[in-house]
Amino acid sequence: MNTKFFTNRNNNSLIDKFKGIFEFQNIHYFDALVGYFRASGYFKLRPFLDNVSEIRILVGINADELIANAKRKGQLYLENPESTKEEYLNFVSKDIEKASYDAITEKSIVQFIDDIISGKVKVRAYGQKNLHSKIYIFKPKPFNQHTTGSVITGSSNLTDAGLGTYDNSNYEFNVLLNDFCDVQFATEEFEELWEDSSELIPADIQRLKEKTYLADENLKPYDLFLKMLIEYFGDSVIRDKVGNLTLPDGYTNLQYQADAVVEGFHKLMKHNGFILADVVGLGKTIIATRIIKKYIEKNGYNTKVLIVYPNALEVNWKTTIKDFGIANYVHFISNGSLHKIIEGNHINYLKPEDYDLIIVDEAHKFRTSSTHMYGLLELICKTPRATVGNDIDRKKKVMLITATPLNNKPEDIANQVYLFQDSRKSTLEGVPNLQSFFADKIEMYKKLYLIKDHHQLVAKVKEIYEPIREKIFTELVIRRTRADIKKIPRYYEDIVAQGMTFPNVIGPNKIEYQFNDYQEKVFFETVSAIIDSLGYFRYRAIEFIDPKHADLYDNATLISQQLSMIMKTQLVKRLESSFQAFKKSIYRFYISNQRMIDMFEKDQVFIAPDIDINKFLDDGKDEQLIEKIEELSKESPNNQIFKAKDFSPELLEGLRKDQEILEDLYHKWENIGDDPKTKKFLSEIDKTFFNTKNVEKKLVIFSESKETVEYLAEKLQEAGRTDVLAISASNSKQRFATIRKNFDANYPDKHENNFNIIITTEVLAEGINLHRSNVLLNYDIPWNATKLMQRIGRVNRIGTKASEIFIYNFYPTAQSNDLIKLNEKALKKLQGFHSAFSEDSKIYSEEEQLIEGTLGNLQPQEEVDERLQYLELVRDLFENNFKEYKRIKNLPLKSRVGRLATVKEKESKEIIGQSLENAVLCYLRNKIKEGFYVANNKNCVEITFYQAVKLFEATKKEKPTNVLEDHFGAVSNALEQFKKVYNTVYSTEDYDTSNLSVQERNAVLFLNSLKDLQRNFPQELSDDFIELIDASLRIIYMGVFRKFRNEIATLAAKQKKKKMPLAKVIVELNLIMNKYPIANIARLDALRTEEEQQPKIFEEPKIVITETFS
Q1: CA 610/CA 593 separation, integer angstroms
Q2: How far apart are CA 867 and CA 831, in angstroms?
Q3: What does the pLDDT read at residue 795?
Q4: How far is 711 from 726, CA to CA, in rounded Å?
């Protein structure tokens, strides 16, 4: 082997040559001229330098950048020694920041600093021009023609990679020269450069030390608490300064809204969407509009926005968008018209791929993924953008707006999140597979009905929803309550300064009623009949159809069961609403059931899901009905006229048995007498609802039943009230202006008092203000109990004159409550909502408790989001003590402090179940993931932000203790845990191909089986078609379109059952794929950027801060 050349290959490394020279030659002088000098290189070299008397290291800096900066300013670059030293010190401090965190490395860093301070090593920085040369000079004393000196020159810098200290070091090319003239020439060149360089004196090195975590500054636990918050919240502390400059006339720049705009826009860009879930009455439409405008400015002026809303919100949205001057960029569509976009041929709408930003108001209406409406919206949201602007991501941005995003169960929030997150490949750190994350919560929720004790129920609901809150909501949801705004002085002072206020909600207050003996008996018998006796055969006809017609009705048994359950539920709800509503419902059921019996007797059984058969029969249009069904059957064969023999005899038997029960109920309810609930209501009108607490003498009454609304209005009119307005879906639009004039405190023109009582169905639970009233009565409790929040939001709004809002609920009677579990249902839903999102006030039950912050116990008080409190602490520091904010922000990474374990004894027991003694608390992150860890030398556990902040939190008075000397092993455990999670989550595949649901697994097996057939059927299964199948598989694995996997799985089951020929399978698969943008996705997959195609490179985690506990 040639010993003059060193390449760092085949055990021929530069560090080995250095070792040989220092060990076997008498070296007195060692000079190094390098373009880059890393502390890591010096650490490896240091053991050989103990006996070297004079050591000089001359380092180049990035002079090119300094020269370029001078040129940009139109100046001639003249080296400034102070700038040169500062540039070099910054480089070394960053190098120390990136160095391994262990005892040996830290000792070496300290040795390097001590060597310079002691004078053993002299370091200078050269800044006149870039230094690319690498020269290492070894000389004895004296040095002349008769003594041995050496010079090594080549490509290696004084770094780990350049010296060849590890297996995958850089390939270098260095040569050793021993001739005196060569060494002398190198020395002369070095001396000339040394004279022109800037010397680092001990004071400079002290500045270097202060730039690193080794600084002598006596940090306090409170400093690191603030550092943790500043690093975690990042730019969120810097508020939107444009404020009033961007708002049109008539709009107030409320600070809590401005903050939501900044944070919401950040979430929108980071996660492709978020949920704006402020409680009702805080101005979500204005916040959303400001974010829309901000996105248009970001993406460019070809941006197209689609706003999806219920009809009741149309006027408000169009007015606000027009006021903000962005109407040219926005299209509006109601929930029921989404099909017009999918069809792609409507003059007023673009195709799904042409929209950049989708806004969905009252997004909780899209909580059920199995509905047709959800499927349409998912297609619109998930179809990739055809063209991109300054926002180059092909995925659309989606903003969901709702005050009640959690409507029934964990699936609800999951389904809404899936509108902008792929269920099996999310952008959330630590939760790449949302489907797996939600699966166990959904199963736990299904078992809640088994819990009888309310306190146990509350605890179990907390167990389900707190992980959702910590892992999902903190990243994807913005939600502030009135309690939050009152708690933050800056927000509340701003509200007061604008002449606004938030009323207190008093209640809910119980109103109960009693049956007489006969009513109680009939009521009990009715509940028993509805739940246990009726078979609901009227709604189960297709369940009993002859198998030869089975192809017409997929899942006939399941559909029949669902329909009968819907009818059963409706009857119980009507029973709870009013006698009048129930009597009308039972009569309709009685008539329609008899009509079906008559059909069998006439041997003409109408099955027509696409029309209302009873409406034709009510009008006596039997012949027109037959003609209509025959016409429909040509395009929709499931609309048919069958013979009696086409059904099992069990159906007619069941219909007749049901009719006997219905006839008995009908006659009993004809003689039921006056409704005690109505009597109670009328007796409380003046005494309770219109007493002195009612500020403007207005009353709002909600009922789920139109019949109840009309019945109550009639009873009030009979009692002499002429100021009653009855509203339902049939007249709400026509009466919109009247409602505003009489009940909207924000109505800009003259207020009227022609109507003082408004009785309405859920049609007015959204999109309108009724806050001239401060008294609200829930005549019946909706089974979807979070509708109560929407109802209360109509009167609890900014602009009311009242300081208090009074809520009254009619409670279910004991008889039905025992049987239908209405209280349990409502408590379960509402506690889930409070646990996940926080809410201003109790809505339904006195036993219901509101969750306190994050991990605390439930408290019967208004909820405050602790995350907002911590963010406000940092914002306050930023605004009012910027010097201190800057000092904390500039604390170097790896900053650390020692604390006593006893200070956090209580919190640690709650969070990790034991003391923190001899443990470390670490905050780690890289560009993709950040995490908080509690570790010792043996174990490590990752904790949430909410848990970590409780442990980092400190008072200004708390004094530090010495950092544990042996804490490096614990920190190493935390780093390993970070890497383990990172590699599992981010560095395996683009998406999770395991943990498939049953439907996903069946769909994947089916599609792969078709791919396997290509070899035998190349014409039927072309390469282009296989490409579409591959795109379909990716879509299933990533969880892009939830309904797509279901449809493929259904086709797979159908093929397994009927053994369809391949040609028919391909036709049906094409029909499914054509409903989704599969071809478009396949094309875009091929156009993914080069960066995305490159293999992922793991980025080492940075240690942000560490605390040790002794």
Answers
A1: 19
A2: 20
A3: 92
A4: 10
